[in-house]
Write a structure and sequence with these properties.
23 strands, 7-stranded mixed beta sheet
Length: 513
């Protein structure tokens, strides 16, 4: 066995991306106070079952406060241990040995150990489980407990990114033999324990005593997380001082926020991208020429200008972002070309098509407006898009993965394999197009085990090209993470870019100024 250092792993796996300084003066960390957050992305079906988490409210509350993972991507992009203290890999990256942190307890007093890791991971491959982390865990052929605080994973194939994958926000650690109780009541090892939980409405958390992160994180005494899905109401709550921070800034009211002396805007460039996935097993989306026509019927720059108001960039119908190590910046751009779209439809034997596009602002801020812009730009190509405005509540349960064509967003992932294996690998739960391509799947497995960076770059470049030219997802734009907070809050000066609000970790990383 040989050690792969955390920084070394970052280089061989993939850098987590470009980070942004806040521009705020650094202030000394201090304990105390109550943090009030107003968050979009809440649903009445929310629970503490990490396998089901798909939107920002539960990702930030569970992953960022109540529960822990084995590893964590720090604000500076480095992979660090959370419940794992260290790890080492065999030369082929197929066998990984993890040493666990000692002296950690769950909120109900149960000590944390190897049995908890094994049972928590097995949840994702249990019969009937619909976990987005299933492809991560199913790649493990054996989990061997060496001692209470050491275990060994054997993988089907080598994976240089494996420790990164264990920071996935779905892979939360639960107490063995008490999983149902932990999911029902929110019992984790995180810095904050659950005092009350009203799904889709409000969560109240309190700081635990004697935590292993003491002195490094967890500065608030209490946290109240309020569900405010309506963008205008969320911005107003911040401007009037009802909450201390909000996610997903409404660009229409951004100028008002910036004019408020008590509010700071935080913006980082990551891999977040807004999408329109189509179920490729259904007509007309099963026809490659139709998919290609739809990709040339959208005015991407118009969407960046009018939906993001410049807070982002044009994307190219694949999920790898500018903060990824192997982002293919030189890939030929799918441009807005109505004549080419019409020509592609004719090659498909069609004079025009009429399709429904389901959208709600739950998918992303401005999704309904984006769908209407798409409708207008596609009309010039003989494509009639009927925009179906869906309810915000239940959108991820009732529309995404179910309606033939819909609006969606992805936060992106720290590594290419993580992103591809979550949403593009054949048969995985969150493959939201069902697109099948033999060459893509072959490259996915080969690149995952490859340790030569130049070879990985070549393979991931080809995979991005295949998605762009043949895949079932229209990806018009990359969207910066733009959140806002009261000047009463302070942070380290560096904001993580893996997810909203400091990579979903604001609750544990920030403090009262």
């Amino acid at each position: 066995m040989h050690n792969i250092s955390r920084r070394g792993l970052l280089k061989t796996g993939a850098a987590a991306g470009v980070l942004a300084a806040t521009g705020m003066p650094l202030r000394a960390q201090q304990r105390g106070g109550m943090l009030k957050l107003g968050l979009a992305g809440a649903n009445t079906s929310d629970s503490w079952d990490g396998r089901t988490h798909s939107d920002s409210y539960m990702i930030m509350t569970a992953h960022g406060a109540v529960f822990d993972c084995l590893t964590e991507v720090a604000a500076n992009g480095e992979l660090v241990g959370e419940l794992a203290e260290s790890w080492e890999a065999s030369a082929d990256a197929k066998t990984w040995t993890f040493k666990l942190r000692q002296g950690v307890t769950f909120h109900n007093g149960k000590p944390f150990g190897a049995d908890d890791v094994i049972e928590s991971l097995n949840l994702h491959t249990a019969e009937g489980a619909k976990s987005a982390a299933k492809p991560i865990v199913s790649a493990i052929t054996e989990m061997k407990k060496i001692s209470d605080h050491e275990l060994q994973f054997t993988l089907k194939d080598g994976n240089a990114d494996f420790p990164f994958l264990l920071s996935d926000y779905h892979i939360l650690m639960y107490p063995a033999g008490q999983v149902d109780e932990a999911i029902a009541n929110g019992i984790g090892t995180g810095l904050y324990k659950v005092e009350s939980f009203d799904p889709g409405v409000r969560t109240l958390l309190s700081r635990v005593d004697s935590h292993y992160k003491d002195g490094n994180a967890g500065w608030f005494d209490q946290i109240e997380v309020i569900a405010i899905n309506d963008a205008s109401a969320r911005m107003n709550a911040l401007m009037t001082g009802q909450v201390d921070a909000v996610n997903r800034v409404d660009f229409k009211t951004e100028a008002l926020l910036r004019a408020n002396p008590n509010v700071n805007i935080m913006e980082v460039t990551g891999n977040q991208h807004y999408t329109f996935p189509m179920l490729t097993g259904l007509d007309p989306f099963s026809n490659l020429k139709v998919r290609q026509a739809l990709k040339h019927a959208i005015n991407r720059q118009e969407m960046v200008d009018k939906i993001l108001l410049g807070h982002g960039a044009v994307a190219n119908d694949h999920p790898i972002g500018p903060a990824n190590q192997y982002y293919a910046a030189d890939l030929e751009q799918n441009s807005y070309d109505p004549d080419k779209a019409m020509s592609l439809l004719k090659e498909a034997g069609l004079d025009g098509i009429k399709v429904d596009l389901s959208a709600a602002n739950a998918a992303f801020a401005g999704a309904v407006d984006a769908a209407q812009l798409y409708q207008a730009s596609a009309a010039s190509a003989g494509i009639e898009i009927n925009v179906v405005q869906e309810p915000d509540d239940g959108y991820w349960s009732n529309v995404w993965l179910k309606k033939p064509w819909c609006a969606c967003y992805w936060s992106g992932r720290a590594t290419e394999d993580w992103m591809f294996s979550t949403a593009y690998e054949s048969g995985v739960p969150w493959n939201d197009t069902g697109w099948e391509n033999a060459r893509f799947q072959e490259l996915l497995l080969t690149a995952r085990a490859e340790l030569d960076s130049n070879k990985r770059r070549e393979m991931y470049g080809e995979m991005q090209m295949l998605c762009s030219q043949e895949g079932g997802t229209v990806v018009p734009m990359y969207a910066n993470y733009v959140d806002a907070h009261s000047t009463k809050l302070a942070n380290s000066g560096t904001i993580g870019n893996i997810f909203q609000m400091d990579s979903s970790r604001l609750m544990e990383r920030w403090w009262m100024a």
